[in-house]
């Protein structure tokens, strides 16, 4: 097993608790599936969201998915002019078998953040 850090991002359709949780759950499910992770493999998750998303903590979505023993932290992104709006990002620290290739996941409008990874998705 090897300690790794995986990145991901997605966008919410609006600033509502439902939209933030839906987008974050989709992101976490996809990240865990592509990387063959179980909750026991996770060490910690750091979530950030753009300043226009303040209706709910993205970490609530992780708790709803059963990540109740994983340390979670939420923070606000720097308010950079022209940045992609309604964006939730995550940095997941996890243990993964050495033979598994790490897969970073960018969904919805957030694919624009990492066009270099699109072929790998």
UniProtKB/TrEMBL annotation:
It comes from the Bacteria. CDD domains: AroH (cd02185). Keywords: Amino-acid biosynthesis, Aromatic amino acid biosynthesis, Isomerase. The keyword Transport does not apply. GO terms for molecular function: chorismate mutase activity. It is an enzyme of class 5 (isomerase). Its EC number is 5.4.99.5. Prephenate binds at residues 7, 89, 106. GO terms for biological process: amino acid biosynthetic process; aromatic amino acid family biosynthetic process; chorismate metabolic process. The keyword ATP-binding does not apply. It catalyses: chorismate = prephenate. NCBIfam families: CM_mono_aroH. This is chorismate mutase. It comes from Thermoleophilum album.
């Amino acid at each position: 097993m090897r300690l790794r850090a995986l990145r991901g991002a997605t966008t919410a359709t609006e600033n509502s608790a439902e939209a933030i949780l839906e987008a974050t759950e989709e992101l976490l499910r996809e990240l865990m599936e592509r990387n063959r992770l179980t909750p026991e493999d996770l060490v910690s998750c750091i979530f950030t969201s753009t300043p226009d998303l303040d209706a709910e903590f993205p970490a609530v979505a992780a708790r709803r998915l059963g990540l109740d023993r994983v340390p979670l932290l939420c923070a606000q992104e720097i308010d950079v002019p022209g940045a992609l709006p309604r964006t939730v990002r995550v940095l997941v620290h996890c243990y993964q078998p050495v033979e598994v290739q790490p897969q970073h996941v960018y969904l919805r409008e957030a694919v624009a953040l990492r066009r270099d990874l699109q072929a790998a998705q």
